[in-house]
């Protein structure tokens, strides 16, 4: 059943077998100690009997925590047993197991993502691989296609038809390049197609006319600075599950960062070119 659960296209039901295997290993260690010390362990004149069940509880929490890279398995063990007599040794076992496992290999879930070649953002440890000195300015994409409010519609149509992106950064003017919002390509195409064929003679049409006519724009709630460290950018992408962010310097759009640039920068730091 465990092999079946881990090899299906969408793995599921893996945690409980791992929890049981950890309990079995812990119980085996506890029984071995009880045989080696049948009278218990004497510390400070007091005899401490060996309780194999406590070793099973600590083993289940530690092994499952090491596989999943989580600490909450200790709380799960307490809830399943209904008592917290062994709270300190269980927590210490889970912490030690996480320290060892996180320095040796990714968690089961991250390993499954990598094995199935799904989009995956590698985890980094800032002080170990120097992710703080590396800033967004070093790896951001500088080839940014912007749309300005004072851009003629003919140029807007040429940009939309010649690029293959889902959204465009909207800037105030072509000279200032001040980022003011985001325009979805689908909404912009619909707005361009719905424009009337006849306009006032001698009047040049601009993008701001399309925006004023009802083309929706989105505010830029999050943006990066060129001085933002790689570790901070990675934390934002990982915690908020972002796909891309624009980079601004004093309000001026200067680039963008997506999963591709971030993953390449992390790979370069982990395996620097020789």
Q: Can you describe what's shown?
A:
Belongs to the chloride channel (TC 2.A.49) family. Residues 140-198 form the CBS domain. It catalyses: nitrate(in) = nitrate(out); iodide(out) = iodide(in); bromide(in) = bromide(out); chloride(in) = chloride(out). With 274 residues, this protein is mainly alpha-helical. Helices cover 49% and strands 12% of the residues. The strands form 3 sheets. Strands 3-4-5 form a 3-stranded mixed sheet. Strands 1-2 form a two-stranded antiparallel ribbon. Strands 6-7 form a two-stranded antiparallel sheet. The two termini are 46 Å apart.
Note the overall shape.
elongated
- List unreliable stretches of 5+ residues: none
Structure class: mainly alpha
Estimated helix fraction = 40-55%
How far do the termini sit from each other? 46 Å
**Strand/helix succession:** HHEEHHHHHHEHEEHHHEEH
Q: What's the gyration radius in Å?
A: 28 Å
Give the tally of β-strands. 7
| Sheet of most strands | 3 strands, mixed
Mean pLDDT: 86
Q: Taking strands numbered 1, 2, ... along the chain, how are they ordered across the largest sheet?
A: 3-4-5
Tell me briefly what this model is:
With 274 residues, this protein is mostly helical.
Topology:
Blueprint lengths: L1 H6 L7 H22 L4 E3 L2 E3 L3 H17 L4 H9 L5 H16 L5 H8 L10 H4 L6 H4 L7 E2 L4 H10 L4 E5 L7 E6 H9 L13 H6 L17 H11 L3 E6 L2 E7 H12 L4
Parallel strand pairs: 3-4
Antiparallel strand pairs: 1-2, 4-5, 6-7
Helix pairs in contact: 2-3, 3-4, 3-5, 12-13
Organism: Apodemus speciosus
Protein name: Chloride channel protein
Family: Belongs to the chloride channel (TC 2.A.49) family.
